[in-house]
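Q: My collaborator sent me two sequences in one message, no labels, and asked for predicted structures for both. Can we handle them in order? The first one she listed is below.
A: Yes, handling them in the order given. First sequence, followed by its structure tokens:
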Amino acid sequence: MGYFLGVFYFYLWYTSILAGYLCFYCPILPLVMFSNKLYRYYTDTILTFWQQYPTVLVQLLCNTKIQVTGDSIKSNEMSILVMNHRTRTDWNYLWPSLYHSIEGMHRFKHSTKFLLKDVIKHAPGPGWVMQLTLWIFIKRLWIMDKKNLEKFCDYVSALSYKFSLLVFPEGTDFTEDTKRKSDNFARINNLQEYNYLLHPRTTGFTFLSSQLLKQKCLDAIYDLTIIYPDIIPQTEKHLLRGNFPKEVKLHIRRYPSSVLPRSEDGLKTFLEEVWKKKETVLKNYYETENFPEGQTLKRSSLGLIPALIFWTILPYITIYLLIYYNTFRRICILHTMFLICTSFLSGGFQWFEISLYDIKKEILGGIFAF
């Protein structure tokens, strides 16, 4: 039964992404030629609605209880989320946590994007949607990554774009091997050795945060601490076998821009202090089972029913359209070919989108580049 549940979960998850890509993202591509803001609006609305689907699958199908406490995430803000990367499957439990924690009238279009390794953008389906929804992919070659982050920050500022960007400062998930490397780094640099965390890599975070603060478009940084009280699903294989945790806890702490340092050195110290506090939180929990105090963030699961019905049915509608409508099939094929080409030739569609905006701005002037 466990293995069947795991396979069924991934089947529903993956087919919903492919169907969403084919039915929504392929047809609206021409919109970016006319308006970057409108393209961002529609793609983010689709993504935010889809994010409810893994939420309902985790809570209802996999029967995992999600407990979120602390500060709510404001949907009228551009924010950076920093979270400990306990497992490779953390994202499965981030969506439900965000469903309960994002508040405000713009929550229906307030998407959450990730900063990820470059290779992930090529994953058929998920990687394509990530590119189209402006996720950031880094090569871990700082000369190139710095230029791309600069372009990203300029674009976000130009559009007055509001969303959340999740950053895993540790750079990888917590395992025996990565902990050993982190401990070696701590000893070489005369730092505290962590038992529940890896030492954060600060370069990308500090540069990204300082650039956004300079352009006055970063409203807050949120510190997210995720805890698995029972089963720890370290890799996708654990979930595939049906080893879903019975409970996941997440605590959120908000740091408004008014309290953030402006310099990269100051932001580096800030992140290191956040990580020390996070280590204390995890230590206290695993030793005493005391979870950080704060308001409980909980939203009714009834709001997830439309997403459950819609995204479960959509793959079969997509199959019907692909079989019986030649125009739809051609649009999907041409779009996918174009996307694959941009992935390899320009580094990803997100950079094509930003370059297109810059060209329109140069030709038409800033007042017409929207």
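Q: And the one she listed second?
A: Here it is, processed independently of the first:
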Amino acid sequence: MNLALLLLLCTQVDPPTKTQEIPHAGLARAFVERLGRGEFDQAVASFDDTMKRGLPASKLREVWQGITGQYGPLQSLGESRREVVDKYQVVFVTLEFARGKLEAKVVFDSQDRIAGLFFVPAGKYKSPAYVDTTKFSEVEVKVGKGLFPLAGTLSLPTGDGLFAAVVLVHGSGPHDRDETIGPNRPFRDLAQGLASQGIAVLRYEKRTKQHQLVMALTTSTITVKEETVNDAAAAVETLAGQEKIDPNRIFVLGHSLGGMLLPRIAAANPRPAGFISLAGSTRPLEDLVLEQTKYILLLDGPLNAEKQQQLNVIKQQVDKVKSADLSIDTPARELPLGVAARYWLDLRDYDPAAAAQRIARPMLILQGERDYQVTMDDFARWKQAIGSRNQVKFVSYPTLNHLFMVGAGPSRPIEYLTPGNVAESVIRDVAQWIKSSR
């Protein structure tokens, strides 16, 4: 099981209080203590039937070893807190490891069985200093029509308009409108930072987030068109219909996968006045999966036999994607990330940098030099393909990671669980570029 799937940011919860005053706190603490002692069979015994099927002892062990591999051994338990969601009691227990803190989010049903388990960052989001809430307001909007309407937020500068505007397009994964990753909310930073500079911004729930069940039931037929492109194109039209928005000055900003798909978004909707890529990848997605896996496995030294086997499995899956034998009938379990074959077939032969040569509109390409997910190799490919055009600008940032947040040394996944904000230099560069693109 992918650890990233379990590192989910929690919702609003009750403030910390004494453990003995919190219903189910004793059960939750006893459960995580079993994890700390390696008693996974005993821990699973407290699961409901669905959890027992989805997270058996072997998988629970794998998840816990992934956590302790990053954070070190569990040393102690801290405070507990609680929230109530419908018929469920949700208890948060702070876990203090040798190299940091997490919270265990343990969900109990009406029969005191564990119906959900998540590990959430202990840090909390803080709005950056460059956000000035007196200079904008936010309103709820709906993006798209039909079966998949999406909830969105429009950050609208104060004043009469007409305002230049930006649509934010997510990276891979089922993101919310803030593109929440751990305690960090890069899309909120971008939206409110740019709105403070007089530029309207629309951010929205990703289809795979808001409509998870339906998307899960149709996973074998999903491509990036259904996942991302159609909704980004619809979001542009949503912005164009807003009273204070200049319909001729709407820009699309894509992060990671969203940046990679800018040429397809441009083909789907001719309206945007320009495009902005933040860590947009240019190489085949399956190659990035293999490269990222290898990078992470090598962070703590040479590969041992177990890690080499993990890498070999990923390599076999990547080879399957590239094979001429790949068909829509190839089982998803044989492919990277368990993603169905149709998704990979749709991306076959797609070269974002080459496709960008057909975009006859301004582009801004931004890249963090510490990014291990999308690297300076991708940045170089953008430059090679479209660097000679007068309407294209390139900026890289030596200290920024994949989230465009400041750090030092080699970037690590655990970095994303440290509260931070998109660098002010990125907000400033994007705002200035938009204002100059007339």
